[in-house]
Amino acid sequence: MKKIKLIIILIPFLCLSQQEKIKSLDINLTHYEYPFPVTFFEVSNQRQLLKMAYMDIKPENYNNKNIVLFHGKNFNGAYWETTIKALTKEGFRVIVPDQIGFGKSSKPDNFQYTFQQFAENTKKLLDHLGIQKTTILGHSMGGMLATRFTLMYPETAEKLVLENPIGLEDWKLVVPYQSLGSWYESELKQNYEAIKKYQMTNYYDGKWNANFQKWAELSAGWTTAPNYTIVAWNSALMYDMIFTQPVLYEFKNIKSPTLLIIGTRDKTALGKQLVPEEVRKTMGNYAKLGKKTKKAIPNSKLVEIPNTGHLPHIESFDEFIKPLIVFLNQ
């Protein structure tokens, strides 16, 4: 009886890491489809003509109320899809810009980022669209921008909503100074594994699912692009903006009715890896920061969402959208 030799051939692609499976994306997400049609608005900033991408969704049952959604630093307008659908169903017109340097908008190679510039660009867009009054909602870094916009244009910002905003504490008081070069070198090391690890640790407290994976893969898609260095440099400039332009000292000046939606499990704080353990433990405590911020902002209401991290509108949508709609209808 002949012996049969079993030869096993290992197919290389089965052994690829998750990073190697990531679909490469160009820096303007040209072939990445957003949930609603995208239009481009030209803005002149710092001697450059730039394109600002945005979605403008006006429902048939329009109730004459508007809301602008500001994305976070590690995201773009596309992650508001479920929120947009729920708000338009209620009759709200929803405007979702990608700020310059983000998503499908221009990525300038030589730029000074400021929240004031972002706010001014957004105001020009709203003027272009004929919108005089609107609610401003900001998530994460978008919360810092939403605060700045509301302070600059109180006549436009009817209401303010802050969803797990960063900048509720002044990190430059405890985190050693980082040069632009340091931030840039750090961003050059980004890949899927690093992005997932950061988000699991700070956003989701060790949890992970397909919804979280989707947005991590989108960020990682840039890291495989040939001109990722442009994205990395822009990201370094934005980190410098976040650290050097705090808004929390001006919360007392906000005049618009404000809703704080806080996932209390959130641990997000920039620069944690740069401080001793005893300092790290005091940073990004949203269970305390939410209450502290409510006291700082006049005419504000706090809605806490337990067992939820940095992205309530992704992780705990029902608990996020119900109080938001109630607030918008008041």
Automatic annotation (TrEMBL):
Entry GO MF terms: monoacylglycerol lipase activity
Cited Pfam families: Abhydrolase_1
InterPro entries: AB_hydrolase_1 (IPR000073), AB_hydrolase_fold (IPR029058), AB_hydrolase_sf (IPR050266)
Keywords: Hydrolase
GO cellular component: membrane
One GO BP annotation of this record: acylglycerol catabolic process
Superkingdom per UniProt: Bacteria
Keyword Iron annotated: no
The keyword Hydrolase appears for this protein: yes
Annotated AB hydrolase-1 domain residues: 66-315
PANTHER family, per database record: HYDROLASE, PUTATIVE (AFU_ORTHOLOGUE AFUA_2G14860)-RELATED, MONOACYLGLYCEROL LIPASE
Protein name: Alpha/beta hydrolase
